[in-house]
């Protein structure tokens, strides 16, 4: 029972960490990644690299949201089972 609460707290805290990254930091990270790949700003390949990074980030965020939803559902089911067990006693 305590483990499921801890798991829920950790799952809720992970996405909050992403809130502390500003749009400027994200843009700077994407720029650095594309430049480190040898791409020059303004070129079609550089623009594609930025777009690929954005898409990957959005995909990761969606996956995290889906995992959180699944964990919340699992936690609700566990809580319901615990409640039913307690009521039977």
Q: What is this structure's SSE topology?
A:
Blueprint: H1 2-18, H2 23-36, H3 44-88
Helix pairs in contact: 1-3, 2-3
Would you kindly provide a written description of the structure presented here, covering whatever features stand out?
This protein is an all-alpha fold and 89 residues long. It has one domain (2-88). The protein has three helices and no strands. The longest helix is centred in the last third of the chain and has 45 residues, at 44-88. It is rod-shaped and about 70 Å long. 1% of the residues are buried. The mean pLDDT is 86.
Q: How much strand?
A: under 5%
Shape field: rod-shaped
Order of helices and strands: HHH
Low-confidence stretches: none
Number of strands: 0
Instruction: Specify the number of helices.
Output: 3
Largest sheet: none
Number of domains: 1
| Beginning-to-end CA distance, first to last residue | 17 Å
Radius of gyration (CA) equals: 20 Å
Q: State the share of residues found in helices, binned by percent.
A: over 70%
Q: Which structural class should the secondary elements be placed in? A: mainly alpha
Mean pLDDT: 86
